[in-house]
Amino acid sequence: MEARQVRGRQGLQWILSGFYLFRLSPFVWILLCLTFLLIAMTLEFLPVLGKFIFTLISPVFMAGIMTGCRSLEQGDQLELGHLFLGFKKNTVPLITVGGFYLISQVLIIGIFMLIGGSALVDMLLYGKRFDEQELMEVMDNALSASLAGLLLTVPLMMAIWFAPLLVMFENMPPMIAIRKSFFACLKNIIPFQIYTIALIILLFLAIMPYGLGLLLWIPTVFASIYVSYQDIFHFGTMPTGKEITEEKEEMQNKENTENNQETRD
Question: What is the pLDDT of residues 91-102, one digit of tens each?
Answer without folding.
Answer: 999 999 999 999
